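Example record

One chain of 226 residues, shown exactly as stored in the release files.
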Amino acid sequence: MTKPVLTFRTLAFGLGAGALALGLIPGERAPLAPPAMAQSASKSAADLDKVVGALRAISTMKADFTQTDRQGQTLRGTMTLKRPGKIRFDYGKDADFLVVSNGKSLYVIDYEVSQVERWPIGNSPLGALFDPDKDVKRYGKMVPTGNPDVLSVEVRDPKKPEFGMITLIFVKNAAAPGGLQLTHWVALDAQNNRTRVNLSNQRYGVAVADSAFTFKDPRRTARRPG
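Predicted structure tokens for this chain:
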């Protein structure tokens, strides 16, 4: 299986997209706006509240994913999520790579070359998305979709372009926590490399052990005498 080097970096940078303040930082006063603009801003704030509520309603989740990069390379696997902050992208038993977050850092593990890359997420929007008890509203904005049943959230920080951007798409679904189901996202890294991840077969409230978010460190194995 070809390693998705581009996709790994897009996941790390795209999911870690920087904070774009929605509304105002606490303590500041809102400027006056025309009624139409105020109504639009109010609806966006309400929709973002719905997204935050849906994220907070998820305790555990498993889903199949299909990941496609800008060259059209497609990879499949299973995503496992557990609040707060834990996620695993498993590309199958024959893959020699893995992506895991233990709630503090996102790890990209390459077993073929015994390499591990670590991306801190503690104070980043990535951490906020994985742990919606934080102020998710500071990390994104609603994007019009033209469909009342589809909500789109864009996360980026113009002051930190190295974090790239991610757009998450939710579809109204009464059977999903909070009434919204995350169906896919599109990530752009700093080099404008695009990766799309589609989710399917979402299962909520499943039993997930914390051991699912650990991994065998290939660097330790490599140090052992032969």
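Notes: Residues 35-56 form the longest helix (22 residues).
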